[in-house]
């Protein structure tokens, strides 16, 4: 696996060129998401759960709106 990108380029190229029988120009024209879909890798990712949503909401909580009615800060 490439440490710089985290992608296994030799493995991805083998899968695309040998297993999917893509031509090199077809392989390199794909986005990583498209290649993952073609390889069936998207099925391995779990969906959003209530617990994960709550974790993200706590981590990235909305900040209170400090602006007044006209959109300007009130300075309270």
Protein model, in words:
The protein is mostly helical. Helix content is about 45%, strand content about 0%. The protein is elongated, with a radius of gyration of 22 Å.
Q: Helix count, per DSSP?
A: 4
Overall average residue pLDDT: 82
N- to C-terminal separation?
54 Å
| Number of DSSP strand runs | 0
Radius of gyration: 22 Å
The major β-sheet equals:
none
Structural class call reads mainly alpha
Q: What fraction, in percent, of the residue positions are helical?
A: 40-55%
Low-confidence stretches: none
The dominant shape is: elongated
Strand content: under 5%
Taken in chain order, the helices and strands follow as HHHH
Write a brief caption for the model:
Helices cover 46% and strands 0% of the residues. The chain is mostly helical and 76 residues long.
Ordered list of secondary-structure elements with their pairings:
Layout: H1 9-19, H2 24-29, H3 32-39, H4 50-59
Q: Which key phrases capture this entry?
A:
76 residues; mainly alpha; 4 helices; elongated
């Amino acid at each position: 696996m490439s440490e710089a990108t985290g992608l296994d380029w030799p493995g991805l190229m083998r899968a695309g060129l040998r297993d999917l029988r893509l031509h090199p120009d077809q392989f390199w024209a794909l986005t990583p998401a498209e290649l993952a879909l073609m390889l069936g890798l998207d099925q391995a990712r779990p969906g959003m759960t209530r617990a994960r949503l709550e974790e993200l909401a706590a981590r990235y909580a909305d900040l209170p709106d400090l602006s007044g009615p006209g959109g300007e800060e009130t300075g309270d």
